[in-house]
Write a structure and sequence with these properties.
Structural class: alpha/beta
CATH architecture of the largest domain: 3-Layer(aba) Sandwich
Shape: globular
Radius of gyration: 18 Å
Helix content: 40-55%
Strand order of the largest sheet: 3-2-1-4-5-7-6
Strand content: 15-25%
Order of helices and strands: HHEHEHEEHHEEE
Number of strands: 7
CATH topology of the largest domain: Rossmann fold
Number of domains: 2
CATH class of the largest domain: Alpha Beta
Number of helices: 6
CATH superfamily of the largest domain: Vaccinia Virus protein VP39
Length: about 180
């Protein structure tokens, strides 16, 4: 007969395995895990010009590196959303290790295609072309209300970017904002 500790250990192992399996399936079928290179993180955050009153979002945050760098730079409210439970666990662990007392850094397991963007001022994403295209209308509405979108490597098709900045890794950061509101 199994005792409570054994059942707890087995349940934890099953949940971790299920989370790993979900992450593998998401990476294989939906959005491959791509990580913003470490060497350009601070360069990208500097180009974003984040300020204390900004509310920053990383869509598809993975382990949350750019969110943590954004917070380190500006001490603003920073959010990271990812569909993978394993990535969120890793991001939360990193947050606890780097900023254990901060309540201004939030990582949540969310479907980025269903997010309401109205509470954010600046959004960063490193998503593939299909995902960027699927988010185009949402981004257009966000930009027209004064928000700014930063996209590493992939542009939003048929949408003019305000700037296209070549980074030190020879990739581009596309910056989208409403030029008429400046």
């Amino acid at each position: 007969m199994l005792n409570g500790i054994t059942i707890g250990l087995i349940s934890t192992a099953v949940m971790l395995f299920a989370g790993l399996l979900i992450t593998i399936l998401i990476n294989a079928l939906l959005a491959p895990t791509k990580k913003t290179p470490q060497r350009v993180l601070s360069e990208i955050v500097q180009l974003m010009g984040l300020e204390k009153n900004d509310t920053f979002l990383d869509m598809g945050c993975g382990v949350g590196e750019i969110v943590l760098e954004a917070y380190r730079s500006a001490q603003c409210k920073c959010f990271g959303y990812d569909i993978s439970p394993i990535m969120i666990i890793l991001a939360r662990t990193k947050r606890i290790l780097h900023f254990p007392m901060s309540k201004d850094i939030v990582f949540e397991g969310e479907d980025i295609f269903k997010l309401d963007l109205k509470n954010f001022t600046k959004i960063y994403c490193f998503l593939d072309e299909k995902s960027m295209d699927a988010l185009k209308k949402k981004f257009q509405k966000f930009i027209s209300s004064g928000g700014v979108v930063y996209s590493y490597r992939y542009c939003i098709k048929d949408m003019k970017s305000e700037k296209k900045v070549k980074l030190s890794d020879n990739e581009y950061l596309y910056i989208y904002s409403d030029l008429n509101k400046k």
